[in-house]
Design goal:
Elements (H helix, E strand, L loop, with lengths): L11 H9 L9 H11 L3 H27 L21 H8 L2 H4 L3 E5 L6 H14 L4 E5 H13 L3 H10 L2 E5 L8 H14 L4 E6 L3 H4 L6 H13 L1 E5 L20 H5 L1
Parallel strand pairs: 1-4, 1-5, 2-3, 3-4
Helix pairs in contact: 2-3, 3-6, 7-8, 7-9, 8-9, 9-11
Length: 265
């Protein structure tokens, strides 16, 4: 005897079967899809295609979210969240090229340069999110934290494993590079990452300093020059200019026109 159909048009048996074949999440939209199928007179094949397309889209979103979390991307720094009213200025043609991710496809580099607070990190992470949505492996980390972690990895003998993992990702984002001076070990790590990834995988670096100033921040001039030359030779450069957006985040007084001091008079 078949169990009665519920108000949503789904039987308990159907729900159980969907869960057994790992399609339980389709139950979230299936009632609406059933209604659409009836009102639009969809064929069985059209209805099945619609339901499966919903599930594929859901799984793609879930996978992208997981990849972004694994990549250490800031969830708030997406392309959609970029403030179009910001005072920051940059070459929109270069930015359009970067968002196409052709630089990732071609294993080229990208440099996002500019003063403090103009949104370099946001733009870099936005590119990382786009890459995650397209199924790419990404890792994003601030330069000082990255090299500190690699220094610690030498102590517990996991340095080679960490380096191989960083070399293997499709897009490596190093944020705030050369903000602080690098010691010999850190300079060596930077050199190895750049050399091993050169024309094999994409590397994106953000910095407050021009690449010509990076030499002074690296301990070994020869390694520094070799790494920087490789980066620049295959890199798109996006220079972001303008005032710091953080100034607009400064709190302002919203108290009534009569201040407490005036009230005491």
């Amino acid at each position: 005897m078949t169990a009665p159909t519920t108000a949503t048009g789904l039987t308990p048996e159907l729900k159980s079967l969907l869960r057994r074949v790992k399609l339980g999440k389709t139950l979230d939209t299936l009632p609406e899809r059933l209604t659409l199928a009836r009102t639009s007179r969809l064929s069985h094949a059209e209805f099945l295609e619609l339901v499966l397309a919903d599930e594929v889209a859901r799984r793609d979103r879930q996978s992208a979210t997981l990849r972004a979390r694994t990549a250490k991307l800031d969830p708030a720094m997406t392309l959609e969240a970029w403030d179009g009213d910001t005072n920051a200025t940059y070459d929109t043609h270069v930015w359009a090229e970067l968002t196409s991710l052709r630089f990732v496809d071609n294993a080229h580099s990208a440099l996002i340069l500019g003063p403090v607070g103009v949104g370099k990190t946001h733009l870099a992470h936005a590119l990382g999110h786009i890459a995650c949505r397209r199924g790419r492996k990404v890792h994003a980390e601030r330069a000082d934290r990255l090299f500190k972690r690699l220094r610690a990895a030498r102590l517990d003998h996991t340095h080679d494993v960490e380096m191989r993992r960083l070399i293997a990702v499709d897009l490596l984002i190093i944020d705030d590079f050369a903000l602080q001076a690098l010691d010999p070990a850190e300079t060596t790590d930077f050199y190895e990452l750049v050399v091993e990834r050169h024309l094999k995988s994409a590397t994106l670096v953000t910095s407050n300093r021009d690449p010509n100033e990076w030499l002074a921040a690296l301990a070994d001039p020869l390694l520094a020059q070799s790494a920087i030359d490789r980066l620049q030779s295959s890199a798109w450069e996006l220079v972001v200019e303008g005032e710091s957006y953080r100034r607009r985040q400064k709190p302002t007084l919203t108290a009534p026109e009569t201040t407490q001091k005036e009230a005491r008079r």
